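Hi all, posting the design record for the shared folder.

TITLE: backbone redesign
STEP: 1 of 1
STRUCTURE INPUT:
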């Protein structure tokens, strides 16, 4: 099951530790970053796609509410604070929920239920993904995706219509794709199985290019072909 990517923003280490523990026990969630202030959170959100943000309100330099107001787009937000007087303003920003410290696990799970009700996810049926490139969020249809190439901390995504450079590891990107349709063939390459023109030796032809199949990924690639009802590649 693909998980919702979430971040936790709070200047209190003990508060972060408590909420991080709650998140770890939710199979639907993946905590991708713990951040001590809203300024770091803003920088992170400009470079990464996030589904849900647990956000403290009363933080130095930039409050959680000011962070949300300062951004054109934010993920879903669950505010966490020790001050009840901020609740009305928090809900005016269309927050999913507003949790008062100290947060109980029961109250936390209720907030997660509200989030899941508003943002149901059916990854197995999804036919597209979203990626962020050059401060824009692009929708990529899975049928259009040809392959992706690792470039250190970035990847180059090649589709039938465009090429995008995205700040994301290839391994992380692979986890977002259905395993029956996409496969790593090399430490630097991931491909769509449906766009293979032919296999020659240890190379795959996709359109006008050849991509290598490394020894590390050879067996996995062959197994994926078998599951799709394809012939054995004999690599």
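Okay, here is what came back for every position:
SEQUENCE:
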């Amino acid at each position: 099951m693909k998980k919702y990517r979430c971040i936790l923003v709070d200047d209190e280490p003990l508060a972060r530790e408590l909420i991080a523990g709650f998140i770890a026990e939710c199979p639907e969630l993946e905590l991708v970053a713990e951040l001590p202030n809203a300024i770091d959170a803003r920088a992170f959100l400009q470079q990464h796609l996030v589904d849900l943000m647990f956000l403290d309100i009363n933080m130095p330099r930039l409050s959680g509410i000011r962070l949300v107001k300062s951004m054109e787009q934010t993920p879903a937000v669950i505010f966490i604070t020790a001050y009840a007087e901020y609740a009305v303003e928090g809900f005016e920003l269309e927050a999913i929920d507003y949790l008062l410290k100290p947060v109980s696990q029961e109250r936390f799970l209720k907030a997660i239920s509200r989030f899941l009700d508003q943002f149901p996810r059916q990854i197995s049926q999804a036919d597209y993904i979203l990626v962020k490139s050059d401060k824009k969020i692009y929708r990529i249809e899975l049928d259009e995706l040809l392959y992706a190439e690792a470039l250190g901390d970035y990847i180059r995504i090649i589709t039938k219509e465009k090429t995008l450079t995205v700040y994301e590891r290839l391994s992380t990107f692979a986890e977002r794709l259905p395993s029956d349709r996409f496969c790593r063939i090399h430490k630097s390459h991931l491909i769509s199985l449906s766009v293979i023109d032919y296999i020659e030796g240890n190379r795959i032809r996709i359109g006008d290019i050849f991509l290598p199949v490394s020894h590390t990924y050879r067996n996995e690639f062959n197994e994926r072909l078998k599951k799709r009802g394809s012939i054995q590649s004999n690599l």
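COMMENT: Residues 105-118 form the longest helix (14 residues).
Let me know if anyone wants the other runs.
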